[in-house]
Amino acid sequence: MARSKQATPIRRQVSSEYTGKHDRVPRTANPAAAAAAAVPNGMSNGKPEMAPATASMQDNGLRQVVFAVGGIYASFLTWAYLQEKLTTTPYGDAAKPELFKFPVFLNTIQSLFAATTGFLYLAASTPRGQRSPPIIPSRAILLPLLLVAVTSSLASPFGYASLAHIDYITFLLAKSCKLLPVMFLHITVFRKRYPLYKYLVVAAVTAGVAVFTLHGGKRHKHSGGGRGSGETAWGLLLLSINLLFDGLTNSTQDYIFQTFRPYSGPQMMCANNVMQTLVTASYLVAGPYVATTAVGRWVGMDEGAAGGELAAALAFMARHPGVWRDVLGFAACGAVGQVFIFYTLSTFSSVFLVTVTVTRKMVTMMLSVVAFGHRLSRMQWLGVGLVFGGIGVEAQITRREKLAKQAAAKNKKQ
């Protein structure tokens, strides 16, 4: 009798470069069932067995492929465009332009949208007649979830602050290097070892970012209207802190998926965004009071800003009502994009997501160049090639490893 295919989530690879904050993959409590669902067993419904990727494409159809890829591209390209517009484009009159400098307020709106969308997605993905699983199934999971919320809340302000010292293309390239902080934390904290090719990928990506940044600094210096080397170094330091928090977030989420099985992606999406909203909203409310304390002065909070970031952000948006459209669009695209990631993983596989995610990052950079008029030198294009070349090689090797594991699981069952 043919084995019925079960809708089990796809496993997430910890060290894969092409998965980021929006690419969380839940782990299943039954590895054998996951292998059986990922690889057809012999004959299914009288049809001969095909390669996993090809079978998935044919079974789900071209329409689902277009829907999944189009959804990821449309949501995340728009999200990236609005992110750059919000953080680098002045609002208001040319005589007195103002920049939107309220990252915690922006993160609160985004996490609130994502939490609401996550609850709807969790309810829709629950089989009819069953209750939706709780987003916090036990007390033991509460502390790791809180750590994820805190680290993800701390990461974004450092990233947005770096944009005052580096350009958005450098920001995009560095944010594509999530493998660096993940490997650093696993090597230093968990004493894990990686194959040689991953160290070579890290070297290529690091060299690419260095070439891009150094030659970008020279070009700006000669033009007389750019940033100094000290300012660029400060921006890269802030971005490094951002990446370190991202790596800690990724590592902690991976620990949660391994330890608290079964815990699905939609549950993580809801829990993470609910707790992150509570953390950032608490800061917005308590910020004005903390600023007057010794701790607030030590971290450099502005005592003179009456009402703190929340009041300042609302006043800014009252002066420039058009900012609401960009903020709400940014939050909505981020929330919908996460759903499309989980839809793609559940309908196809993480192998299929490799190409989609890597090419999406490349298209995002090209969109930034075209939409905001960035001009890159030949050496900067070389740096871009090193970064995405390293990411592409890592993704291709990981893809082969996954296909090999699927083939081994199939042969073991025969």
TrEMBL record:
A Pfam family per the record: UAA
Region: Disordered, residue numbers: 1-26
Subcellular location: Endoplasmic reticulum membrane
Extent of the signal sequence: none
InterPro entries per the UniProt record, alphabetical: EmrE-like, SCL35B1-4/HUT1
GO CC terms: endoplasmic reticulum membrane; Golgi membrane
Protein topology in the membrane: Multi-pass membrane protein
Molecular function as annotated in GO: UDP-galactose transmembrane transporter activity; UDP-glucose transmembrane transporter activity
Transmembrane segments: 65-82, 102-124, 136-156, 168-189, 196-214, 234-251, 327-345
Keywords for the protein's UniProt record, in alphabetical order: Endoplasmic reticulum, Membrane, Sugar transport, Transmembrane, Transmembrane helix, Transport
PANTHER family named among the record's database cross-references: SOLUTE CARRIER FAMILY 35 MEMBER B, SOLUTE CARRIER FAMILY 35 MEMBER B1
Descriptive protein name: UDP-galactose transporter homolog 1
Organism: Thyridium curvatum
